[in-house]
Amino acid sequence: MAVSSLSPEIEAAAREVVDSAFKVHRELGPGLLESVYEACLVHELGKRAIPFQRQKSVPVRYDGEMIDTGLRLDLVVADVLVVELKVVDHLLPVHRAQLMTYLKLTGIRLGLLINFNVALIKDGIHRIVR
User: Fold this and answer.
1) How are beta strands 72-77 and 81-86 bridged, if at all?
2) pLDDT digit string (tens) for 39-64?
3) For the stretch 40-58, what's the b/e string if a residue is b when 16 or more beta carbons lie within 10 angstroms of its beta carbon?
4) Second label for 109, Cα 20 to 30 Å away, from 97, 101, 118, 127?
5) Confidence band (pLDDT; 50, 70, 90) for 3?
6) What CA–CA distances, in Å, run from 115 to 2, 12, 25, 110?
7) DSSP secondary structure string for all residues of the chain
8) Tens of pLDDT, residues 76-120
9) Backbone angles phi and psi of 94, in degrees to 5
10) How far apart are CA 71 and CA 39, in angstroms?
């Protein structure tokens, strides 16, 4: 699906998150815990008055029932964007699969997979469109 098929609202939310991630990474650099980057990214989004839900609980539909599995998404921004944060040496296919599953479970079309453990944050940001 072409990126142009995403609404301006979704693209605007993605731009704000990417800009915020750049600012956080510029100030902190790589090497900290994921929870530190999450807290700072949330702080940055709050300063920008961007609505978000942190550690959003998502039930899983299984066998015709909604089951609370304890699944929590790092961030859901403006109800249109899932953000999954990582601090790893290299992103693996399982990280992309994880975000794709989150998009499927929520019905949200765009996800950002952000790995803060990189020298240049532009190399750590990956868009996934469902």
Assistant:
1) antiparallel
2) 999 999 999 999 999 999 999 989 99
3) bbbebbeeeebebebebeb
4) 118
5) very low
6) 24, 21, 10, 17
7) --GGGS-HHHHHHHHHHHHHHHHHHHHH-S-S-HHHHHHHHHHHHHHTT--EEEEEE--EEETTEEE----EEEEEETTTEEEEEE--SS--HHHHHHHHHHHHHHT--EEEEEE-SSSSGGGGEEEEE-
8) 999 999 999 999 999 999 999 999 999 999 999 999 999 999 999
9) -65, -30
10) 19
Q: Among 69, 95, 92, which Cα is nearest to 84's?
A: 95
For 96, the token pair is 């992309």
Given a contact cutoff of 8 angstroms between Cβ atoms, the answer to whether 114 and 21 are in contact is yes
Distance, CA of 49 to CA of 120 (rounded, Å): 26
Angle subtended by helix axes 34-47 and 8-28, to nearest 10: 120
Alpha-carbon gap, residue 114 to 16, rounded angstroms: 13
Q: What is the pTM for the complete model shown?
A: 0.93
Nearest Cα residue to 126 out of 72, 68, 75, 85: 85
